[in-house]
Amino acid sequence: MPPVLAKPADCSPNAPVIIDLIVSESEEESPQPPRLKRYKACTHRASFLASARLGISPKEYRQLRRWNIPKDYLQLLCYHHVEFGWISQSIEVSEWMSGIGRIWREGESQGYSSRGFEIETDSILQDFLGVLGCLESITVVKGTRPLGLQHWDTVCSSWVWVCADASKRSIWKPMGDTNREFVRLGNCMVSRMVLYVATMRVKRICFLLEQPGTTCMDGHIRFQEPCMEDILFVRTWMGCFGGETAKPSKLFCFAKDFSALSPLKRKMTRTLQAELKSTGPNTVHEFVQDGVLKCTGHKAVLKNTQKYPKEYANEVLSSWEAWRKKQTPPEHDASSDSDYEDGRRRCASWPEANLRPVIRMMRQKHGNLPGHF
């Protein structure tokens, strides 16, 4: 006998939904299947109500609260939901700060629903630090399917050692000289990336971040947040994938997704390194000033190294495909709202993420949106 849904005595809209699995007497006598217990689902839990206003699932909302994600970001998600409604999860592969878009274009050619995010493609809607670009990036985050791929190439210019004299960044002071605008913009970009990555982690989206080998980006204060605590990296060389220069790189991912990252590790032989150095373009110019040896990067050449080799794009996609096949269906989330309502002080904002201008614009359009997030 199939299960029957028992109608609740109180049929008001706010009444909890009670699902009662009724078993016949003949089935009770049979050893199989065992009698199922009554399950009660309350549709007016705080997380159900809040997540519906943010355009995310209750599971995502509860995890964001456990990680103490700032309130202004949750408020921004609410304004985004008011403006755009529920976003269809149709994106499988996305590439952020994609340049020529080698990875997402290769994914598209292989039949995946792919998307690139690059300011040179659209200087308004794809300006990661702009107001409209911020809203568009949230649309891409919400629109990515579970078990999808997010490859990030967050702008690295202020995070590498070549720029250390101007940015004042180091492993001891990774946030650098915040009196300089390009340093503040770099900090803002990384903070926003961490907020989006936290949202995507709950959906089991594979996160990969590629940075030059001398980067100190992982020293950013938001890399120390609970949502990023199990991040790790491997070292590789773009020259091993057919790049014009050797370009040592660090690839970051989370521990659970390490199987998608480990196949990308490469070791370069001294012979190949010497060959690329002699045949490839010179990326650094050394000179003596006031008796001190200094160096500066050739901007045009360094920017050209951001173009990923085609072999690297194919390896990223094949590693992600292998990772996705190993994933098991997500377990039922039986967590309680009390998991995050523990009385601790909530974080109101990450100042360096600079979300206030976006919220201010949306408030002018839609007014105040009351509610606790």
Low-pLDDT ranges: 1-30, 36-40
What is the β-strand count? Answer: 10
Calculate the mean pLDDT score and round it.
Answer: 82
- Tally the structural domains: 2
Task: Give a quick account of the main beta sheet: strands, pairing sense, barrel closure.
Answer: 6 strands, mixed
Q: In terms of quaternary structure, what is this? A: single chain
Largest beta sheet: strand ordering: 4-3-5-6-8-7
Sheet/helix structural class: alpha/beta
Rg: 25 Å
Strand content: 15-25%
Ordered list of secondary-structure elements with their pairings:
Layout: E1 17-19, H1 25-29, E2 39-41, H2 46-54, H3 58-66, H4 71-84, E3 91-96, H5 102-109, E4 114-117, H6 131-142, E5 144-152, H7 164-167, H8 181-201, E6 206-212, E7 231-237, E8 248-254, H9 258-261, H10 270-279, E9 284-289, E10 292-297, H11 299-304, H12 310-326, H13 356-366
Helix pairs in contact: 2-3, 4-13, 5-12, 6-8
Description:
The protein is α/β, with parallel strands linked by helices. It has two domains: 1-44, no CATH class; 53-327 and 348-366, no CATH class. Helix content is 35%, strand content 16%. The chain has helices at residues 25-29, 46-54, 58-66, 71-84, 102-109, 131-142, 164-167, 181-201, 258-261, 270-279, 299-304, 310-326, 356-366; strands at residues 17-19, 39-41, 91-96, 114-117, 144-152, 206-212, 231-237, 248-254, 284-289, 292-297. A hairpin with a 2-residue loop joins β9 and β10. The longest helix has 21 residues, at 181-201. The model is unreliable at 1-30 and 36-40 (pLDDT under 50).
